[in-house]
Amino acid sequence: MATLREIRTRIRTVRNIEKITRAMKLVAAARLKRAQGRVEAARPYAEKMEQMMRRLSSAGAGLTHPLLEVREERNIAVLIISSDRGLCGSYNTNLFRVAMQHLRGREPESVKLILLGRKGQQFFRRHPYLVVDSKALGSGADLSFGDIQPIVNTLRNLFESGEVDAVHVVYQRFVTAMTQIPTVLPLLPLKPPEEEGAAAPTEAGAVDMIFEPEPAELLGRLLPRYVDTQVYRTVAEAIASEHGARMTSMSSATENAGEMIRNLTLSLNRARQAQITKEISEIVSGAEALK
């Protein structure tokens, strides 16, 4: 049985851990609020942008653009957005499981990885896939288009040069602070709605549109912006998901520490009671012996 000193030491240690986890929970909650606001602002614009670009690409049949070129999917580039730090529960574990399922069955030579987040860099060191580019994610407190531009340029260059035939993004889609969904987003090439099984806008399967300026010039300006917007949205959602997962994890850790302190305090009281009872018994026995 543990001594009183050992139990007191354990209580003091667990109490210090509880203070740390509570502080981390509060920090994550504050960051989550800002990150969630960024997601709510970026998501409607990104979704409308995607719908519009798919309709434009469908209406402008016969247009050629490097980002619209559909090729046989032999080589792919995958952007994987993980976290920089741990202590966020199963956030990274679930993400990497979905990423590996997505890569399963592909030859390592046919896959190029772009890793955003230090945990992804650590995980894929043990795998044979080629890492083209990697970058720390950071807290995302002041996330801007300029922060994700180097990653976007790498993805676009790989696709436009023909080194890869498709670009996918693996990230955690933010739902609530307690729910994040690992998601695989096909980013490039941009496919018209009918190729994805959506209902055709008209009976002919195309939209009758008048372009101003010319379709090639319009798509040439909007397509790069579309890629920027989609990558920015996925990064914003991943950051919000990370803060939500960390807040939930630290909340559970704080509750567990409190429960452990209560159990240790009960053990301490029992040990003290046993010690006092033993001392009283010794005093009584000594007094009886002196009679």
List keywords for this structure.
single chain, 5 strands, Pyruvate Kinase, Chain: A, domain 1, about 290 residues, elongated
Using the CA coordinates, give the radius of gyration: 28 Å
User: What is the total tally of β strands?
Assistant: 5
Q: Write the H/E string, N to C.
A: HEHEHEHEEH
Strand order of the largest sheet: 3-2-1-4-5
Give the domain tally: 1
The main sheet comes to: 5 strands, mixed
The CATH class name reads Alpha Beta
Overall mean pLDDT = 85
**Which class best fits the helix and strand makeup?**
alpha/beta
Can you tell me the CATH topology? Answer: Pyruvate Kinase, Chain: A, domain 1
Proportion in helices: 55-70%
CATH superfamily: ATP synthase, F1 complex, gamma subunit
Q: What is the architecture at the second tier of CATH?
A: 3-Layer(aba) Sandwich
Distance between the termini: 35 Å
Tally of alpha and pi helices: 5
Q: What form results from the Cα inertia axes?
A: elongated
What fraction strand?
5-15%
Which runs of at least 5 residues are low in confidence (pLDDT < 50)?
195-205
